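Course assignment 3, question 2. Fill in each field.
Student: A.L.
Task: Predict the tertiary structure for the chain below.
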Amino acid sequence: MIACTSSEGMNGAYSMNQQQLGDDVMRKPIAKLNLLAASALLLPLCLLVAAGPAPAGAGRTTPPAGSAHHGSPPPPNPALLRSLPGSPVGATASSDDDIPGVPIPPSPFTGSVSDADQYDVSSIALTAGHGLTASLTGPSGTDFVLSLYAPGTPSLGADASHIVAVGTFGDYPHSFSYTPTQSGVYYLLVFAYSGGGAYTVTYSRSSPKPGDTVGPVCAAKNVTVTRGKTCTIYFKVHDALSAKVAQHVAIETKSGAVKKSWSWIDVENIAGWWATKYTCRLPKGAYRIVVTGGDLSGNKQSRVGRATLTVK
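Answer field:
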């Protein structure tokens, strides 16, 4: 049989064994075509081997339900199937039987595949960094395969290196998640490996997670102290995303002259209050407590902490 290949959909990455598997299964059908030309006695057997899928589970090792397609057969080569006399693919080919297929409908969408019409291809535009999640369900007793082909794939008959993602194996739904590294038009294939009937595909495209572009929020508490006495300065520097922050606390005059300051770097980022002791020798009057900071992404504070130090 001409069967189908699989991969884990790891952003187009393939192991050597997966690539070798894809090449091997593409060579075998060609060898069978050569046998057809060599001897008419082999024609019935070759047509039986190449005409379509065997019963579910035949000739393959079934991975655990929910796992990726490790070592399962690769998608059939439509060009080879169409070259065989009487092939149902050649007789019923339609616009969605091969790449580029038809524009993908809104999610969810339905269709049907069978031994006589094994392939449904939908084209979908993806942007680098924007993930695609897709899942496939089909009738009980069937085995439909969901896979994604990279931009520039000439046809389903291309080698297996063009497959960038493939659905999980076992019970439905068969699903995958894939984040493209290049923008372009990709091709989503539903293939009837075993059985036939209606299917449903559900998919969604996500936006990349934004980077840390917002600095920490700073705060301070008002303090009253008698000149020559020690007080406690309370302050806060908290960031929503950073693991650590930098902290800077200053006591300034109303004109902005710094009278005292403290700085700490690589401090654990917590939402609570910090405190430092201060022995005040400033003249009586009102001063400003100013708290600033930064995060590991290089962002400065998004809000400055301000409070008043009153010296009696």
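Instructor remarks: The radius of gyration is 33 Å. Helices lie at 16-38, 43-50, 78-83, 88-92.
Grade: pending
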